[in-house]
Hints:
Layout: H1 5-12, H2 18-31, E1 38-42, H3 48-55, E2 59-64, H4 67-78, E3 85-88, E4 100-105, H5 116-129, E5 130-141, H6 143-150, E6 154-158, E7 162-171, E8 176-188, E9 191-202, H7 206-213, E10 219-225, E11 238-244
Parallel strand pairs: 1-2, 1-4, 2-3, 4-5
Antiparallel strand pairs: 5-11, 6-7, 7-8, 8-9, 10-11
Helix pairs in contact: 2-3, 5-7
Amino acid sequence: xxxxxxxxxxxLMTDVDYSKWADYIESIFRRYEVKPxxxxxxxxxxxxxxxxxxxxxxxxxxxxxxSEMLNRAVEKADSSGVFPLWICQDMRSFELYGTxxxxxxxxxxxxxxxxxxxxxxxxRLAGNYLNPGGLFIFDLNTPYKFEHVFADNLFYEIRDDIxxxxxxxxxxxxxxxxxxxxxxxxEKGDLYKRFDERQKQRAWSYEEIQSAVCGSGLELxxxxxxxxxxxxxxxxxxxxxxxxx
Length: 245
């Protein structure tokens, strides 16, 4: 998974403001009066947020299922002057050598969990490795976004260095959306290399997340419209959850 996608991931994420994400996460720490030292970035991808938080003085651990993604993270860390601990593991079965003060899981990573038992296990593990009072902060694409934005739509973008097609197929019965992605990445001159990727995400309801958290040793504290401390609306496209040990 992601063997070719890792090569284009950072190109596609150029519009993501990781400094803004780090600012928001730190505002959450202040709001809930926690001062974490060790933070786990779960499903860290190529490590952009992990590195941004490391630069701010946190002791960072980055976990991702893709060794190719983590190879990119290591390359970026070598030139950044900070050195998180990188671990190649599935977030459904991750293991740590000790506990952490906070866990973050961003960029709708938990939407890639398709099974209720699996997402329960993620919360159980988070509860196991979080120190008392620690926060698990994660975002999700909302059911509204799956039904009205992703739906069965085709998206495309053409840039100088990359072009991509993104075809969606959403099944409201099982709440799973199939993404068929085709990339054309400029290699040299007018030569482009094609990559194809298929991914799946599930639309989790608030009630399902609330149920999945039960029994994990965690408490669902709040849910916000992302980048704010406002209650979500019916047309919110991304939720931000705060879960506390």
